[in-house]
Amino acid sequence: MTNHIFRRTTASLATATMLCVCGFAATTASAADEQRIEGGTITYVHEQEPPCLWGGWVQQAYLSRQVFDYLVSYDKGAIRPWLATEWSESQDRKTITFHLRKDVTFTDGDRFDADAVVANYPAWEGGIGWHGFTYMKGFTKVDDYTVKLHLSEPNPEIYNILANGHYGFQSPKSIASNSKEQKCLTPVGTGPWKVEKWARGSGISFVRNDSYNWAPPNAAHNGPSYAERLEWRFVPDATTRWGALTSGEANVAYQPPSVQWKAAQQEFQTLSFVATGRPQGLSFNVAKGPFTDQRLRQAFVYATDRKRIVDAVFKGAVPFEGNGALSKTTPLYHNVDGDYPYDVTKANALLDEAGWTGRDADNYRTKDGKTLEARLPFNQAIIDSEGAIALQVIQDQVKAVGIKVKLIPLTQTEGFAGAYSKPDDKEISFGYWVWPSPNILDIVYNDTLNGHPNGNNTSFFSNAEVEDQILDAQREPDPKARTEKFAKLQQWFDDQAVAIGVYNFTYNVAVANNLKGLWQDQGNGLLNFNDAYFVKE
Predict the structure, then answer these.
(1) 4, 142, 171: which is closest to 519 by C-alpha?
(2) Residue 254 near residue 44, CB atoms below 8 Å
(3) What dihedral do alpha carbons 338, 344, 350, 356 form, nearest 10°?
(4) pTM of structure
(5) Tens digits of per-residue pLDDT, 99-125?
(6) Residue 454 CA neighbour count, 13 Å, CB half
(7) 3-state secondary structure of 522
(8) How many angstroms separate the CA atoms of 243 and 238, rounded?
(9) DSSP states of 342-376
């Protein structure tokens, strides 16, 4: 699978009457299977090291996928059973009844059942900051192997959300008894791998769960992992990760340098996943500062040749994205790539019209004696070195029309601690959001979350009428009408230039030729090492 972009249809996600578990089909052994080497250690070099193994960041979901299992699995546009065998929806679409498998155990011996599901909900609610936007209110137990999930709003993508890597299950015993650090570093799940040790700053050692026998039906096999161990190494530098793969020190490399992507496609196996949700894009502060003026936001965008920048920096490894609200793979995506072509003349005209006609000593535009300046802080855990280069090119291009941009790189600690996160701190934000539903608009444009300012709203957007339209689109039961409503909203945000896309967050992976069976799920690109095995070369 090389550089595929996966599209999903809302219709398939909204069908959840009664679905049954089907058994694993017997697979015919291929030539590679016949040469399979039993056991071995897979070494994977990743980039970011998250603070905990599970939580609300996609970098945590990559790890969670190895240790936890989920109620359902996303498979090529369809939701399939996993720990839940079947489910049904209430007429108002706000209650879902799940029937659970009866043969699943956690790696500490605890039983997976209705009590385990109910016990996990408070951990989700307290440990995933954006959880409120799933509309989940909690589970209630019906019997030992049946639960009801309650929603405050209908959510057609709720199954995709439950499958996307954040909503895995920890053993109730570990939730009740383990320390906060243990639950962070060595959580106990039902998944194919167990955490043996997390060496901070270096990596995580996983060992096979020999009792594993409940893989999702879209996996290539059921049963324990073929490999015995998985060494997950944190290597921030892309060139070093590439070198580890080419030298044979690693079997799998995350995000090779873009300049090496074509070589990777020729010399190795490659996987590529364009993340759902929101792309890497520019979000303008519409509450305070110069970009409260729509003309300045539009001028900034016209002054940047975004597609050419993406092509030059990423050399085909990452696609351009014009839509600042939804990425190309998100359900109900609306294509606006043709809007805001590079047009310096139009940019200058808009700036003149807005009254920024003076110039300072450095030739930046001024108005009433004030320089047109924008602070753009960016978290280096979210924006890698190539993304930083793209920002530098944007900085140079807008300088040509008289806009001064001050780039402020932040460490992961600073970024997640909330540095430069208030309306007075910045004029522009840059970043992505991985999310499998068009209600990403609710997450990033709602001005409140649980009664407090919503930190995901980096534009500081506040418009009750538009927020009502987002919720109305989310509630809409008719698929065609829902598509139209979300398209209208995306076009409005684009026309207003509240947020503008630059490139899609893309999860590229290069794999050694003697390792077969590795695959990415299609919810958010999580790697499945359970099916991976070595072959004789």
Answers:
(1) 4
(2) yes
(3) 150
(4) 0.90
(5) 999 999 999 999 999 999 999 999 999
(6) 22
(7) coil
(8) 9
(9) --HHHHHHHHHHTT--EE-TTS-EEETTEE-EEEE
